[in-house]
Design goal:
Belongs to the phD/YefM antitoxin family. A three-stranded mixed β-sheet has the order 1-2-3. With about 80 residues, it is α+β, with helices and mostly antiparallel strands. Helices cover about 30% and strands about 20% of the residues. A hairpin with a 2-residue loop joins strand 2 (about 30-35) and strand 3. The protein has helices at about 10-15, 15-25, 50-55; strands at about 5, 30-35, 35-40. It has one domain: YefM-like fold.
Length: about 80
């Protein structure tokens, strides 16, 4: 296998070997179809994290969000 890439044909013949290699090394293997990347086999990584961590730093401005809005809405007329 050169550079963590393998053809579909070779992957089909040696799938378990590649699975063990990915588990042991932690590096992914790219499976190619006619020389073009088709899929990637990589180790599973749990995404257990606080949902607020995803949003952290995304609020640009937070000034009194419950204050009344001084805008006349078209629907209010």
């Amino acid at each position: 296998m050169e550079g963590n890439q393998v053809s579909k044909t070779e992957f089909k013949a040696k799938a378990l070997e590649f699975f063990r290699q990915v588990e042991a090394s932690g590096e992914s293997v790219v499976v190619t179809d006619h020389g073009k990347p088709a899929l990637e086999v990589r180790p599973y990584r749990s995404h257990e994290r606080n949902p607020f961590d995803v949003l952290r730093g995304s609020v640009v401005r937070y000034i009194d969000p419950t204050a009344p809005v001084d805008v006349v809405w078209e629907a209010a007329r």
